[in-house]
């Protein structure tokens, strides 16, 4: 495993193992920041919930960035859909896609649900090193998807042979996969800013990839924890 030499925990008052533990637990399980504060107190550690919040905001995006090179390649059948996330009492849109086996392709948080948002999501997913060039993309009846699809195909971003399908039952896997996002976001009762939501969701999506990290089997929490500590150069 390629470990980056720069110390990401420099000047932190708590040990790197504690920081990573709190961040990993928050984005993996349905916990609030106050839950984690109490759990740390049981271990004799007085960590304020606002400190844990700052850790998540700082390290969740870094966790996603470091994990991406180790994601296994997904299949060429895409299932694309969007779900709703509450930010400052307003709904925004989380675009997500899985392959035919339910493996996460990518995600984009957007304040709008339109052709431009769909286009940005397709481009990001196409650029991801772990995604295969799509043979077929299944979407719902949202008119923005065909518009974005045709535009990207005309510009050569999508292969000429790629097919867009709007078959509702084929999108059941991605619609069901949205549930874990809702479950994790519920204890926090919404986000206070778009950037806060974006950073936290990066952690949610990274720690809930289903056996997609190289060397980590689905459901192997111990291997996942070891992988994360090694990724940050921390001795468990």
UniProtKB/TrEMBL annotation:
Residues 65-230 form the Integrase catalytic domain. Keywords: DNA recombination, DNA-binding, Transposition. The keyword DNA-binding applies. InterPro entries: DDE_dom (IPR032874), Integrase_cat-core (IPR001584), IS_Transposase (IPR052183), RNaseH-like_sf (IPR012337), Transpos_IS6 (IPR047930). The keyword DNA-binding applies. This is IS6 family transposase. It comes from Ktedonobacter robiniae. The lineage of its organism: Bacteria, Bacillati, Chloroflexota, Ktedonobacteria, Ktedonobacterales.
């Amino acid at each position: 495993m390629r470990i980056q030499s720069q110390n990401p925990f420099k000047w932190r008052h708590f040990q790197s193992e504690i920081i990573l533990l709190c961040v990993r637990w928050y984005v993996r399980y349905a916990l609030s920041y106050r839950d984690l504060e109490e759990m740390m107190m049981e271990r004799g550690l007085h960590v304020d919930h606002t400190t844990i919040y700052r850790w998540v905001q700082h390290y969740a995006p870094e966790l996603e960035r470091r994990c991406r090179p180790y994601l296994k390649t997904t299949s060429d059948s895409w299932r694309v859909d969007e779900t709703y996330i509450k930010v400052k009492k307003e709904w925004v849109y989380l675009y997500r896609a899985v392959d035919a086996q339910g493996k996460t392709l990518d995600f984009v948080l957007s304040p709008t649900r339109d052709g431009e948002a769909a286009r940005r999501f397709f481009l990001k997913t196409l650029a991801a090193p772990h995604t295969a060039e799509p043979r077929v993309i299944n979407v719902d009846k949202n008119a923005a998807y065909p518009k974005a699809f045709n535009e990207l195909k005309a510009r050569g971003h999508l292969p000429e042979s790629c097919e867009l399908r709007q078959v509702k039952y084929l999108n059941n896997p991605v619609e069901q996969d949205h549930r874990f996002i809702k479950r994790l976001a519920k204890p926090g009762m919404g986000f206070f800013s778009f950037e806060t939501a974006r950073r936290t969701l990066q952690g949610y999506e990274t720690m809930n990839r289903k056996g997609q990290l190289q060397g980590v089997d689905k459901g192997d929490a111990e291997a996942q924890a070891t992988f994360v500590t090694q990724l940050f150069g921390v001795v468990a």
